[in-house]
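Q: I'm building a small set of examples for a reading group on sequence design. Run inverse folding on the following structure and report the sequence directly after it, with nothing in between.
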């Protein structure tokens, strides 16, 4: 029996991470292993403002995407749902925000 399942971003990437970008923003980074994997992920038909907005319940206009081909990196930034350290903040370091992104399956 063969495994026809396609790998997720988290499985393809060297690393997928999220972190604070100040008390009001989250930044996520996709570090891809190869230029070919980067080309797949960096394709605007796959990762774009609308996709990220849908994943995180955001307004697409608030999503910023930076593609860095020399490093095989895609960086995504958006406003935190609540300010860092506020009463409703459940992830003070924004270290778990990357999980929905890592679960995406590239085309």
């Amino acid at each position: 029996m063969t495994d026809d399942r396609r790998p997720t971003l988290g499985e393809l990437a060297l690393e997928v991470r999220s972190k604070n970008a100040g008390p009001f923003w989250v930044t996520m980074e996709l570090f891809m292993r190869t230029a070919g994997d980067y080309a797949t992920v960096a394709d605007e038909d796959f990762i774009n403002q609308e996709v990220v907005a849908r994943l995180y319940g955001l307004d697409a206009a608030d999503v910023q995407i930076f593609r860095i081909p020399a490093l095989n990196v895609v960086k995504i930034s958006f406003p935190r749902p609540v300010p860092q350290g506020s009463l409703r903040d459940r992830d003070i370091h924004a270290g778990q925000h990357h999980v929905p992104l890592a679960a995406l399956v590239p085309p």
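The mean pLDDT is 89.
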